[in-house]
């Protein structure tokens, strides 16, 4: 796989056999694409989670206690949908897909069809919930990034590292591309984010307390 702005083909041969160029492949359960985005992976995860919900639909829509059914959905269905979410770089379109999936779960659990014309706010009131899936992703990402930044490991070097050399860089039109750490929202930069992560207790309290709506912009 080649990830580049330039369409120039890459030829790699091993034992006189050319290695196939691909646009996407699955690695350790995650779908990687040549555009470097997470949209395809998120759609794939949501599809798998919906399939798992359908297999156990009788359980999730049964007459069990509402709180118990919600815990089952978050334990068995959300865990499938959010596998590897710590490394996702979310754009506005990805945010909408995840929020739509969250509402899909609650509507299916309460047997509310789209033809019933029930607003999302009413559905959330019926299940005594708020929109939490984006908050859950943000907390997972904060826990994972905090763990990485407190260690001296290869992954930390990859996050902080720079490639030496000279390359011809042309400015692209529009805003800069969104980065993985932008979701944590520290305007004072990476150095201040790293400094906060060194204190484990303060780092956790910071993201446990800041549980308001997550606003993501499209880059």
UniProtKB/TrEMBL annotation:
Name assigned to this protein: Reverse transcriptase domain-containing protein
């Amino acid at each position: 796989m080649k990830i580049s702005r330039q369409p120039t083909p890459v030829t790699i041969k091993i034992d006189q056999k050319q290695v196939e160029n691909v646009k996407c492949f699955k690695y350790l359960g995650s779908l990687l694409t040549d555009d470097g985005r997470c949209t395809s992976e998120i759609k794939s995860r949501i599809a798998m989670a919906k399939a798992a919900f359908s297999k156990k639909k009788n359980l999730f829509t049964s007459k069990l206690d509402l709180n118990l059914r919600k815990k089952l959905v978050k334990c068995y269905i959300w865990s499938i949908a959010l596998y590897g979410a710590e490394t996702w770089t979310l754009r506005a379109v990805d945010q909408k897909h995840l929020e739509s999936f969250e509402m899909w779960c609650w509507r299916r659990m309460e047997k509310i069809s789209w033809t019933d014309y029930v607003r999302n706010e009413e559905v959330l009131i019926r299940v005594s919930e708020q929109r939490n899936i984006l908050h859950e992703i943000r907390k997972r990402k904060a826990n994972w990034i905090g763990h990485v930044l407190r260690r001296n490991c290869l992954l930390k070097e990859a996050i902080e590292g720079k490639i030496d050399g000279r390359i011809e860089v042309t400015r692209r039109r529009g805003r800069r591309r969104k980065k993985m750490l932008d979701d944590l929202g520290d305007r004072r930069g990476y150095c201040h984010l790293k400094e906060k992560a060194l204190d484990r207790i303060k780092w956790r309290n910071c993201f446990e307390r800041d549980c308001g709506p997550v606003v993501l912009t499209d880059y």
